[in-house]
């Protein structure tokens, strides 16, 4: 071999090597891109802006959120808080050989976390916290490099693999709280993780004692074990943790006293042991001069507040309510740092209110109710424009309120009740632009209520009971459109009740009892749609009770001890309590045992009266019959039809109709009536051809008065009965354009001047409520229930995401979910629905808040489900054992939908995805029928 050919050979070999290296190198590059794109492809909202750069054209190292090492291998994924949703493909992610950091917290990921996570063996930083996963946390023991582990508030349950973290000795940050793990004692495995500086194990079902050996974790700066079921004393070991800055043990069952050595924790700035069973004094805390936040409330602490607290230069939050503290507050407390709040309510504190807590102008809450404070409200607070809540009720405070207090621009609640304050409410109260609650009851306030009070348009409650207010109730009061409760009883108000009170449209309770009000009861009160309680007793009111009050839906009415005269309207007698009209000698009623009969007539004239009534009734019946026959003749309508066809009928159709308007009208007979509701009667119509329809009949004007109302329950305010007409329009507007297999189909509406007919498809199985709770109850297997749940969810998904302009139903409940012959669910009753203008965010709260008929979700269930067993016990016992597991999964999805913050609730699109994940094994494939516009064959004429 010549040297030439040798070097040529060498060169070509080198070339091949170079080429190979290049190919291998670039192929591993494109592999990494493929892994990332695969991860992206599984996300359900992968179109979010942040992943726009994730495409075939871009180098993986240039993908948003990706950081590579010097070899251009993916080292970090930083995608926390990006609203990403979907399941996580750990198979792909953990194929990234050099991945050290995976930051995916605060997103909307769901599904289980697969055991493939344990292939990510180079991970040092793992954040999956604040997501919506389900199931157990997989084995983490292979992740031996981990320093940062955050899984808090992520929907995990089952046993936590404590053993697997025992060897992760590099851990410095461990956050597992807010998950419903199985009950467990304090995990001894973490006591060997000496590098830990932050531990968050709050609210994850740990019980029993905190071990003494916690004191070995001497690097700890933050230790949070709140919201568990911890018992026993706070171990003395804790006092060895001298680096601690934050110690949170609240909401447990800890007993005993604060350990003496706590005085060693000189770096402590946040200390919270609230809501436990601790007792003894708190003098040991007087050394902790770095404290910013001190929370001792809801314990049984006693003794005096250390005067040293008054010198704490950083104190911003101080809450010790519901204990048995005595003595005085340090005069300088809260005067150094930007102090935010003090709550010392429900103790036995004496002395005066410390004057300088708003010195830095940042105080938001001053809460000192139910103590024995004396003296006045210090003048300084009149300039405290940051103040939001001022509550000093139930003390022995006295003197005048500094003027500026009444007009504080941010104050929302002023509560001075049960003291000995005196003086007047000044006109400047009109400048209190944020005031919603004004509580002055049981003091010695006097003078007139200023007219300017009507400028406080935010006012919801006025409580002035038991003072010496006098003069007239300002007629400007009608300007208070948000006013819900007005309690002016037991004062010296005089003059007439202002007519304008009837313009306070939100009023729920009116109590003007025990004043010197005169004149007539304004008829305008009868228009207060949500009034629930009306007490005007013990005044000097005259005249008749306005008939308009009959239309109110009251649980309490008290007009006793006035000078009212005349007949008590019959409808008021039905709701009224005994004695509601007593002490008004001029009042009478027919057939009431408490009031005299209106005519003083004898039995004999009584008989005459009956005869006269009979005669009048007879004549009326005769006249009506004649008129009826005449109308029938004129209109040539089938006699069975109860509908006044005074006007012509106008038909609006939304689907192809194969039936005539006449065929519908003829069928609206008593025997076809299948339901009576707040919004109208519902008839079942059998078409000649054998198919069926449901027809809702709504009146425009009030139907014959009494009969309609008599069925109401007294307490409930039934908005449906009141707003019948808008409801019809809402229903038509919402339903006419909707086409979905899980939304009830509105074929057409037929309207005249005074009546409306809504023609729907007929749902033979009635409502879900009926099937679950009434005598039409049937046994429903889990698969049937599951199908109903997912069907209803898909209907809502369509309303929220499938229409050009989203529709909010606002009255979703089992009685509004109807079932067809195959038990397939359809959403119905769109009477309260609202169409959101396109472009407006769906989560903007004002659309949802304050709508009548929408009852915000209650948190009872959430509170009842701390553990898996709890959750299983909440499940309907009729559900078979095998299905309970699935039911619990569905329950936790439901609970996600009721998160306190609407922003944290999943969208309906996500809910459907999550529900699909918990599909019972029984039917692996539900075939979702696509609905054409007119696929229901309605027979031809
Ligand atoms: C990333 O993008 C920048 C600018 O677009 C480009 O200069 C750079 O070469 C890209 N990096 C890689 C590794 O492709
Ligand atoms: C990842 O883990 C799974 C099971 O945990 C295993 O079957 C698979 O081979 C692993 N893949 C790699 C690339 O190590
Ligand atoms: C932890 O480490 C010890 C010793 O290094 C080993 O024996 C044990 O199996 C490890 N435990 C786990 C769960 O990996
Ligand atoms: C406790 O954790 C649950 C989730 O398991 C969460 O829904 C709840 O809000 C947490 N409670 C508190 C007080 O944070
Ligand atoms: C808390 O623990 C006690 C026993 O230590 C137990 O009786 C109780 O049921 C537990 N409570 C909860 C809510 O787990």
Automatic annotation (TrEMBL):
One of its GO terms (cellular component) is plasma membrane. ATP binds at residue 696. The keyword GTP-binding does not apply. Residues 1-28 form the signal peptide. It comes from Mikania micrantha (bitter vine). It is a single-pass type I membrane protein. This is non-specific serine/threonine protein kinase. Belongs to the protein kinase superfamily. Ser/Thr protein kinase family. Its EC number is 2.7.11.1. It is an enzyme of class 2 (transferase). InterPro entries: Kinase-like_dom_sf, Leu-rich_rpt, Leu-rich_rpt_typical-subtyp, LRR_dom_sf, LRR_N_plant-typ, LRR_R13L4/SHOC2-like, Plant_LRR-RLKs, Prot_kinase_dom. Keywords: ATP-binding, Cell membrane, Glycoprotein, Kinase, Leucine-rich repeat, Membrane, Nucleotide-binding, Repeat, Serine/threonine-protein kinase, Signal, Transferase, Transmembrane, Transmembrane helix.
